[in-house]
Amino acid sequence: MYRNLNNIEKKWIDKLLDVDFKGKDILAEQILKSQVAYKKEYAFISLKFNVINNTGKYPYSTRVPVEMRAYQDESAPIVFLLHIIDGLVNELEVISADSSEIVESAISLNRVEYEVNKEVL
């Protein structure tokens, strides 16, 4: 059920963590020491994280510290939401903003915009 991140998913995470916010290094370490359960529906992808090694907990209470919108040339943006629960990375949600089908290999990360929760700026 759980597996390592694939190359496309690693690119998403790397781009998502390109922006500065408090505790980013803790989340990066947790992700590095995790496996994921993958679920896809038409316009939605969920990567549920299972942190498999002991690591520090994220000390902030915000559930979604960072959101990334990846603007596509011929469709609506793809939205990436990183969820934290009880100090641990829990899920990466990937959502098509117009509910169109998501094709992982076709997602462009050339034009992105970030929204960082004010608690962790």
Please give a structural write-up:
There is one protein chain. The chain is α+β, with helices and mostly antiparallel strands and 121 residues long. It has one domain. 16% of the residues lie in helices and 36% in strands. The protein is built from 2 helices and 6 strands; from the N terminus they run ααββββββ. It has helices at residues 7-16, 24-32; strands spanning 34-41, 44-51, 66-70, 78-85, 88-96, 112-116. It has a 6-stranded antiparallel beta sheet with strand order 1-2-5-4-3-6. It starts with 6 loop residues before the first helix and ends in a 5-residue tail after the last strand.
Beta-strand segment tally: 6
Number of helices: 2
Percent helix:
10-25%
The structure class reads alpha+beta
Q: Which consecutive residue ranges, at least 5 long each, have pLDDT under 50? A: none
Distance between the termini: 35 Å
Largest β-sheet summary: 6 strands, antiparallel
Structural domain count: 1
Order of helices and strands: HHEEEEEE
Q: Give the amount of beta strand, in percent.
A: 35-45%
State Rg.
14 Å
Mean pLDDT across every amino acid position = 96
- Which strand order does the major sheet show? 1-2-5-4-3-6
Global geometry:
globular
Task: Please sum up the structure shown.
With 121 residues, this protein is α+β, with helices and mostly antiparallel strands. The protein is 16% helix and 36% strand.
Write the layout of secondary structure elements.
Elements: H1 7-16, H2 24-32, E1 34-41, E2 44-51, E3 66-70, E4 78-85, E5 88-96, E6 112-116
Antiparallel strand pairs: 1-2, 2-5, 3-4, 3-6, 4-5
